[in-house]
């Protein structure tokens, strides 16, 4: 399981539509509208780096309204939940 966080600066009138589009993309588990330097935060959980690269460079970048982005790749995920098992359902190799 590969996890990443994408921080997005978005055109003001595109925040809600873009958040909805992002949430519909396979591999994005959640999208948060936030205050501060960024407008949206997308949480990505995919099975491998190839899927991550495809999602970030082809799917997300193709969406209209993104002004800037920063992708943080997680080395480890610390959680009280067993995220690997939760998000691997239906991802058998």
* Shape summary: globular
- The whole-number mean of residue pLDDT values reads 91
For the record, give the distance between the C-alpha atoms at the N and C termini, rounded to a whole number.
Answer: 12 Å
Assign the structural class, choosing from mainly alpha, mainly beta, alpha/beta, alpha+beta, or little secondary structure. alpha+beta
β-strand amount: 25-35%
Helical residue percent band: 25-40%
Sheet having the most strands: 4 strands, antiparallel
CATH fold annotation:
Alpha-Beta Plaits
Protein architecture, described:
The protein has helices at residues 15-24, 49-60, 83-87, and strands spanning 2-10, 28-33, 40-46, 66-73. With 93 residues, it is α+β, with helices and mostly antiparallel strands. The protein has one domain (2-76): Lrp/AsnC effector binding domain/regulation of amino acid metabolism (RAM) domain (Alpha-Beta Plaits, 2-Layer Sandwich). Strands 2-3-1-4 form a four-stranded antiparallel β-sheet. The longest helix is centred in the middle third of the chain and has 12 residues, at 49-60.
Question: TL;DR of this structure?
Answer:
With 93 residues, the chain is of the alpha+beta class. It has helices at residues 15-24, 49-60, 83-87; strands at residues 2-10, 28-33, 40-46, 66-73. Strand 2 and strand 3 form a beta hairpin.
Keywords:
93 residues; alpha+beta; Alpha-Beta Plaits; four-stranded antiparallel sheet; 32% strand
